[in-house]
Amino acid sequence: MFAPFNTRIVDWNGQRVWLIGASTGIGAALAQALLARGARVAMSARSQAGLEQTARGNVHAMVMPFDATNPQEWSSTHDSICNAWDGLDLVIFCAASYQPMHAWELKADEVRASLETNIGNVCYGLEAVLPKMMAKAQGGLAIVASVAGYVGLPGATLYGPTKAALINLAELLYSDLKPKGLDVYLINPGFVKTRLTARNHFSMPALLTTDQAAEAIIKGFGKGKFEIHFPRRFTSVLKVLRQLPYRWRFALIRRTLGL
Question: Name one GO molecular function term (predicted).
């Protein structure tokens, strides 16, 4: 009953990791932290220049630029990595799109782009990677969602619902895939200082650096957790908030974020 939800990943030497969304932000910091621990990391994003900057010439880094919103590119990129490494041990979905906006600012093209980047890319990736993982009954998937998926946060009109969908997806994936020998990790960061959160115009409580976020994620992998959420001094507050009656919840959210 008290066993870890997933395999504890403590020794990263030789681990074959595919990290999507590795050119900037949390993804770039996590890729570098894993490489420093001896993992082999295939890094993907649209920007080849950004990926090469993340790789820094590390011999264990494989730069694999592609468009994660294109289903066909998933299959070909996955095949290239597996042919080079004879499979994968962990796939980390970290690509994300975020533009703060209010409900009255919604535009159809931005809605489509956010859905494709934040949800569609994960579904396309699952179609590409699951057959081989299930055939071997080993490996893991990690989905980076957000605490913005816990409750309706002001300004996250598109971002929050897509992250809530990823939380739901990770939960059902665990139920589907754990009996088949696969691990599923859900990663819910709080506020992390990136080019995306730089667009926010409100105080961000417990703001972390990308390096701190990467360390928290690796620590969570080491404990075999299902949900890896951080920083706990902030995420724990949100977990309590979503259990409260709406009248209290709405008031406390505005107070917490200084709105």
Answer: oxidoreductase activity
Contact status, residue 39 vs residue 65, Cβ threshold 8 Å: no
What's the pTM value of the predicted model, to 2 decimals?
Answer: 0.94
In what helix (H) or strand (E) does residue 127 lie, and over which residues does it extend?
A: helix 121-136
| Nearest residue to 92 (alpha-carbon basis) of 175, 16, 4 | 16
What are the b/e assignments for 47-82, b being 16+ CB within 10 Å? eeebbeebbeeeebbbbbbbbbbeeebbeebbeebb
**CB–CB of 63/52 below 8 Å?**
yes
Task: Give the Cα separation of 222 and 142 in Å (integer).
Answer: 13
User: Is there a contact between 127 and 74 (Cβ–Cβ < 8 Å)?
Assistant: yes
**Res 203: pLDDT:** 74
Cβ contact 60:41 at 8 Å: yes
User: What digits encode the pLDDT tens for the residues 21-54?
Assistant: 999 999 999 999 999 999 999 999 999 999 999 9
Burial class (CB in 10 A: 0-12, 13-18, 19+), 110: middle
Sign of CA dihedral 111, 69, 34, 63: negative
Name all domains of the chain by residue range, CATH numbers in brackets.
16-256 (3.40.50.720)
Single out the residue of 173, 157, 63 nearest to residue 123, CA to CA. Answer: 173
Amino acid 176 reads D
Which residue shows structure tokens 């009248």? 247
